[in-house]
Amino acid sequence: MRKTTSRRARCEGAEPNRDEGRASLYDEVTARIVSELEAGRFPWVQPWGRTGGTGPGLPRNALTARSYSGVNVLILWGAVIEHGWSSQSWLTFRQAQDAGGCVRKGEHGVTVVYADRFTPEAEKERAAREGGDPKAVPFLKRFTVFNVAQCEGLRAGLASDPAPLPEREIVPVAEEVIAASGVDFRIGGDRAFYVRSEDFVQVPPQPAFYEQINYYRTCLHELTHATGHPARLARDLTNGFGSKDYAREELVALSGQSAPLATLQ
């Protein structure tokens, strides 16, 4: 005999799919943030950008001027840092067209999310009939947005040039500490790190830092990692990200940057 499925059964069967969709989106956002951490990018604390990049203002919609909020701030900050874009302004594909331009061919957008609640009309009617408050239903939607740097032909006023980076402010005492460390100290790129196997430190150029003093904080942080080299204090620097030993080493580096910098304020 042919089986029939009631409307209620079909709806009940669809519920797990909606939950799975929400869970999948949550997992996707979480995975993206974790990947930023594992890549060494901390957009909410990283005190520098790429040369020609933008400062750490809140991401906003270029058409409505509304700032993004919640987890979207972290997602969009991470994208700006990763690609070195010169703007914190974003548009959907359609908004780019409404603004008189378009997204360049081959560009890939960034997924952001919108969470809210709504009350179905049937639920409002039930509450009015039976009494009590109507129950709101949570929902989560995803949108793809593009940085204005990925667009062309936009009308004037949407995409402004970034403010020029400040000139380098030299702190002689800090420069003496760097020189006296004896560590191979390299300047360039858009990452700060210490390479134990080759015993060298590399940091971005000072003009890339939004606040000049953070250049020296970063220098001393990485130089403190270098004190763990076998030829110096021989700390174990092979610990993996997220481990207790990794956290301990980061505390050592934070201590190494904090005390000297306190004398420079």
TrEMBL record:
One GO MF term attached to the UniProt entry: single-stranded DNA binding
Name under which the protein is recorded: Antirestriction protein ArdC
Domain named Polyvalent protein metallopeptidase: residues: 174-253
Organism of provenance: Rhizorhabdus dicambivorans
N-terminal domain boundaries: 24-146
Basic and acidic residues: compositionally biased ranges: 9-20
Pfam families with a match to the protein in the record: ArdcN, MPTase-PolyVal
Ranges where the record places region Disordered: 1-20
